[in-house]
Amino acid sequence: MPASQNSAASLPLILVGGGGHCQSCIDVIESTGQFEIKAIVDRAENLGRQVSGYDIEYTDCDLPELISQYHNVLVCLGQIKTPEPRKNLFKKLAELGGNFVSPVSPAAHVSPHACLGKGSIVMHYALLNAGVQVGFGCIINSRALLEHGAKTGDFCHVSTGAIINGNSTVGSGCFIGSGAIIAQGINIGQNAIVAAGSIVLADVPPGYTVYGIWK
Q1: Where do runs of H (alpha helix) occur along the chain?
Q2: Nearest to residue 116, comparing CAs of 140, 98, 97, 94?
Q3: Percent helix, strand, coil in the chain (nearest 5)?
Q4: CATH classification of the domain holding 26
Q5: Are residues 122 and 189 in the same domain?
Q6: What's the confidence (pLDDT) of residue 2?
Q7: What range defines the domain where residue 59 resides?
Q8: Distance in Å from the first CA to the final CA of the chain
Q9: C-beta of residue 184 within 8 angstroms of C-beta of residue 129
Q10: Which residues of the chain are modeled with pLDDT < 70?
Q11: What does the alpha-carbon distance between residue 140 and residue 96 come to, in Å, rounded to a whole number?
Q12: Side-chain-facing half-sphere of 4: CA atoms under 13 Å
């Protein structure tokens, strides 16, 4: 375990999911100086692997004991095509009594007039402006921009460099791809996917996948 994580004042933290997204989460977590990573939980076939210098030593079977001991959890499973695996994990961890933390990179800016849901993470150089509301269990990825009054529902992933302009609403379970631009005042229906680089100029119905220029 990196020495920088051994502060007595840090909150103990369990990470659930040990893939590529976990690497990015660890980088944010370490940069905050607020947490001490106590365990990474993943599938049995990944036991013994390392993620950013931390050993994967636990599986889902260990979660009741880990949560009883350390309480604080962060879901580090990524989300692109569907939010269901993340939603199922959150449900299981909530039933076990996990306390969901919401790490924010010190390189990001979250307005004091914005609202960030529990279990969400804000990554490096993301910007959440005044009046922004981010739901429960969301990923706001590196360099994403949510302008004034923008809202996301629960379990959304706003990917790298995506822009959600002012007073737009993104429904629960959506994926907004890298570099996508959502015009001002647009409504994205729940479980929709906006492909990378898309420009959205009109509302998107629930469950739709949109590419290119949507108008």
Answers
A1: 20-32, 63-70, 84-95
A2: 140
A3: 20, 30, 50
A4: 3.40.50.20
A5: yes
A6: 52
A7: 3-100
A8: 50
A9: no
A10: 1-9
A11: 26
A12: 12
